[in-house]
Amino acid sequence: MMHLGHLRPSKSNYASPLHMVPKKEGREFQIYTDQKPLTYAFKQNPDKCSPRQLRYIDFISQYSTDIRHVQGSKNVVADSLSGIELNSITKSPFLNFSELAKSQQNDPEIPKLLQNKSSSFQLALKPCLSTNSDLICDISTGSSRPLVPESFRRLIFEQLHNISHPGIAATAKLISAIYVWPNMKLNIKEWVRCSEPCQLSKVQSHTKAPLGTFSLPDVRFQQIDIDIVGQLPPSDGYM
């Protein structure tokens, strides 16, 4: 495409997806696309086309001028060509539910929650589909949310919060929809505030110290104030 002048070198990324077959003599075929405006490419006024568009149309016309529309959901050929090849699952889930079940049995806090009748949790044993073990889950919301031992709480927070680094309320809503543990919102609030990527990107939430005030001295050299600036980058050999 570039050697024909249809694409500039800066647009070389667009050249790779184009695959055309040589046209056989006496054979006509149709071009199907899920972008409906392209079906009017050969019916529009050439005076309204840019030189680049005219070069595209001229190149495509060497193969066919019959462009037809197909719904995106039915354009399976394009989806197959553009999809990334994946022969097998290359990354396992971050949470091992078998280890989570074992940790529930060894966590000293969970027996107290099971014996506490005034707790807002409605705890029950639920089978885990991915393992052969049962998990202690909270069913108060109508769905089974695993009760997370202390050793797994920070791991779950980091995996879910690091997806897009949402705020405190959004992170708590995201995690509480799947998991549950005591004082969850307090833990999440503390961890979000200590998240370094959040502090670097959300400048408006930084803590700013007020300007200091100094009393006027009565005599000379009673108080000496120094502004410390640096290290400044050199410019033409000068600071």
Automatic annotation (TrEMBL):
Pfam assignment, any one: Integrase_H2C2
Integrase zinc-binding domain location: 148-203
Protein's organism: Araneus ventricosus
Molecular function as annotated in GO: RNA-directed DNA polymerase activity
The protein, known as: RNA-directed DNA polymerase
E.C. designation(s): 2.7.7.49
